[in-house]
Design brief:
The chain is mostly helical. It is about 85% helix and about 0% strand. The longest helix has 22 residues.
């Protein structure tokens, strides 16, 4: 497993533990030119875990809620 995937897996695990400090520490250790790829891998792996363990209906509900939060944040000028 290459370093980007390893870091993405660690980022995902830290996020699942709700350990923001570890997420920030791990992200800070990623070279700037690799950060985008690493974060994309972490988000993709998180989505895969959700699809694996949640029903289709629950995933769809999460999508709708997430899109609604993003829309509200855009209207308020904040980050979700």
């Amino acid at each position: 497993m290459n370093q980007d995937l390893r870091t993405a897996a660690l980022l995902t695990a830290a996020a699942l533990r709700d350990d923001e400090e570890s997420v920030r520490m791990l992200a800070a250790r990623v070279p700037p030119d690799r950060l985008e790829e690493t974060v994309c891998a972490a988000v993709t792996s998180m989505a895969a875990l959700l699809r694996l363990y949640l029903s289709v209906e629950m995933v769809q509900h999460a999508i709708v809620r997430t899109q609604r939060l993003a829309h509200q944040a855009a209207q308020e000028g904040t980050t979700p």
